[in-house]
Amino acid sequence: MMTPVYKKGGANMNNVMAIINNALDESFLDKLTGHRSLASVPFGARYRLIDFPLSNLVNSGVTNVGLLLQTKYRSLMDHIGFGKAWDLDRKRNGLFILPPAHIYQANRAYKGDLQNFASNIDYIKRSNQEYVIIGSPNVVANIDYRDAFKYHVEHENDITIIYRELDVFRRDTTYTVINTDDNDRIIDMKVDPKKNFYKKISLQRYIMKKELLLDIIDDCISKGEWDFVKNAIIGNLDHLKVYGYPFHSYAAVINSINGYYKSNLELLKPNVWQDLFLKNGPIFTKPKDEAPTAYKNGVNARNILAANGCSIKGEVKNSVLFRGVKVHPGAVIKNSIIMQKSEIGANAYLENVILDKGVQITSNKSLKGDTNLPMIIAKNAIV
Amino acid sequence: MPKEEMVAMLLAGGKGTRLGVLTNNIAKPAVPFGAEYRLIDFPLSNCTNSGITTVGVLTQYKPLVLNSYIGSGSSWDLDRHNGGVTVLPPYVREGGGSWYKGTADAIYQNIEFLDIHDPEYVLVLSGDHIYKMDYAEMLNYHKEKNADISIGVVEVPWKETHRFGIMNTNQDQKIIEFQEKPENAKNNLASMGIYIFNWEYLRKYLIEEAEENEDSAGDFGHNIIPKMMADELNFYAYTFDGYWKDVGTIESYWQAHMDLLGEEPDLELQDRNWIIYSVNPNRPPQYLSEDAVVDNSMINKGTQIMGTVKNSVLFFGVKVAQDAVVEDSVILPNTRVNTGAKIKNSIVGRNVIVEKDSKIGIEKEKEASDELKITVIGDDEVIPEASNIKAGMVVG
């Protein structure tokens, strides 16, 4: 069941390893990343952001995945474990946790994510795959890498970047934008530009030869450059064959609180959850053995996504409920994201709210955020 | 191998004839239950939660689904260096081999397995009951009473005693008489089919029975227990006061699902202190559309509800289309109920397609009594558009 989804004529991915780069700035998610890294931010009723890139890789047949860590990775490690949920607890290859070695050297300030690559260079060298896919957890999509990899090899690219052309360029989030020529060669690329942006955005999946990655890391660091996207990729646009590979299905970039909130609620559109959950193989996550959800007498639940283990008695509309949420009678929840094990007391009213895990809303409380500025209640708070 | 205090032997070979089309392709313990589980999840989870880490699962009838379901046992945390879960089908030895003749013969044929683990006690369980029980407490009781055999019992309504094996006890809970499905019961303590034996004794009786009585049915109830009774071994009844249900018939299977619903369900599955584990099917969250009407129901992940669902239990992957109505029913995994279809008081099997405007269990036969009749649709059936399947019918 967990073997890669068979694909006729698909590329063989035995020769591809992957590195998921969690050494990213995550401060934009504010209270939600106070105690966890971006990768372990809950998303879509029963997932964490990391589940998407990880499942995509596994479904595409990649079985050697390294996770570069930077800070606050306890919750991520707890979630990932030995990688069993993704069938990555293997004797050969499998999942590798790549800790930030430099944090033990107090006299050296953190310079950028290339430092994380560098401190785990042995893992990259030792892996016996010829190619590497580098991804980051802040893009939610269901991508089959086999087509992109086939294109990369056949086209003899140095670097292939998976991109998506946006229908709507949202100003409340930030993007890494690219510009391509008619042959999809990337001629310009910018991280979060304030003006002169393009409609094509990088989905932050980079395919290249492992040897090239090692060369680039060495080259950048020897010049005092420490940023993977800005230095290793953008810095090489002129002298390497860097091409884009278009992705046409649903993709959400999580780069702001508002983007996070809107992307969660966007999942309520059937075409969006079908794209994300039912195409290109399943999204795996850590099982929690929650019992099915109980809709009690008098419940009124419409247009919701709910995980298991919930017990719902009140009214819930246009909302996403994570595992084990309890909604007491008379409570009303609208346009909200309620994370694991939160409890909403009788006759409470919530609108445009994000409740982190384990929040308790006492009876008769009323909380309201704005559609463009949801109210966030921090983990385990009692309101 | 380190010595174990107690090893569980789970009898999972039954065909479950009375469940009809629900066991066409699978052994009874593999029958789905409670939106997420299979029957065998209950005894296996009880074992894990009770700290029993060596479990032999005795399989026989259509074991394929059950074997692959159990796998390494990791779903119940029973993948252990020592012990864990071991599937024990009948096998061939030097002098030939045979099917398990009965419950006791199944244990007898696996004496080697038990000898490897060399337990003090053997817990014998059956794979077709729904309950949450701490076997460790029963073992404590067994030790306190200095019992040779303890039998788990529940109080059943007096009018149902004729369906059960009834234990007559003295004031100390010592069993003095055993009545199998009695007309006139003297007591209402029914056997749950859960036994703790001192292994040393059980081993001796099993070997004697097999060697001395060639025509033996190899059954605990008919052969071993009466013989032990005659020899005046110490039998004690351990009364379990939680929810316990034998889901051996269509009616009890349906009723046990209804027991999961309501304000305070008779069986609470959401209890995080006694988790029922299962081979978690990985599915996306459940989706209720703008038009969905859901009331008093238990619904698993991977479902898409666009219609009305009331007083029902829906397994993973079920789709209920717009204007479809499901009431007082159990819908097994991956079944699709199309637009305008109506289902009531029914059990609908796996991968069924109920085409639009069909009616299942809605209308009664003309001469039918007022008694509730459960309609059953077997696995993989396609119910054609606008068909009318009357209450109490079985399709499959």
TrEMBL record, chain A:
InterPro entries: ADP-Glc_PPase, GlgDAde_trans, GlmU/GlgC-like_hexapep, NTP_transferase_dom, Nucleotide-diphossugar_trans, Trimer_LpxA-like_sf. The keyword Nucleotidyltransferase applies. CDD domains: ADP_Glucose_PP, LbH_G1P_AT_C. Residues 299-365 form the Glucose-1-phosphate adenylyltransferase/Bifunctional protein GlmU-like C-terminal hexapeptide domain. Residues 32-233 form the Nucleotidyl transferase domain. The keyword Transferase applies. Keywords: Glycogen biosynthesis, Nucleotidyltransferase, Transferase. One of its GO terms (biological process) is glycogen biosynthetic process. GO terms for molecular function: glucose-1-phosphate adenylyltransferase activity. It holds the Pfam family Hexapep_GlmU. PANTHER family: GLUCOSE-1-PHOSPHATE ADENYLYLTRANSFERASE-RELATED, GLYCOGEN BIOSYNTHESIS PROTEIN GLGD. Belongs to the bacterial/plant glucose-1-phosphate adenylyltransferase family. This is Glucose-1-phosphate adenylyltransferase. It comes from Halanaerobium saccharolyticum.
Automatic annotation (TrEMBL), chain B:
It is an enzyme of class 2 (transferase). The keyword Cell membrane does not apply. It comes from the Bacteria. Residues 8-261 form the Nucleotidyl transferase domain. The record marks 60, 99 as: Could play a key role in the communication between the regulatory and the substrate sites. GO terms for molecular function: ATP binding; glucose-1-phosphate adenylyltransferase activity. Its EC number is 2.7.7.27. Keywords: ATP-binding, Carbohydrate metabolism, Glycogen biosynthesis, Glycogen metabolism, Nucleotide-binding, Nucleotidyltransferase, Transferase. Residues 292-369 form the Glucose-1-phosphate adenylyltransferase/Bifunctional protein GlmU-like C-terminal hexapeptide domain. Alpha-D-glucose 1-phosphate binds at residues 100, 165, 180-181, 191. Pathway: Glycan biosynthesis; glycogen biosynthesis. It catalyses: alpha-D-glucose 1-phosphate + ATP + H(+) = ADP-alpha-D-glucose + diphosphate. PROSITE patterns: ADP_GLC_PYROPHOSPH_1 (PS00808), ADP_GLC_PYROPHOSPH_2 (PS00809), ADP_GLC_PYROPHOSPH_3 (PS00810). GO terms for biological process: glycogen biosynthetic process. Belongs to the bacterial/plant glucose-1-phosphate adenylyltransferase family. Homotetramer. Involved in the biosynthesis of ADP-glucose, a building block required for the elongation reactions to produce glycogen. Catalyzes the reaction between ATP and alpha-D-glucose 1-phosphate (G1P) to produce pyrophosphate and ADP-Glc. This is Glucose-1-phosphate adenylyltransferase. It comes from Halanaerobium saccharolyticum. The lineage of its organism: Bacteria, Bacillati, Bacillota, Clostridia, Halanaerobiales.
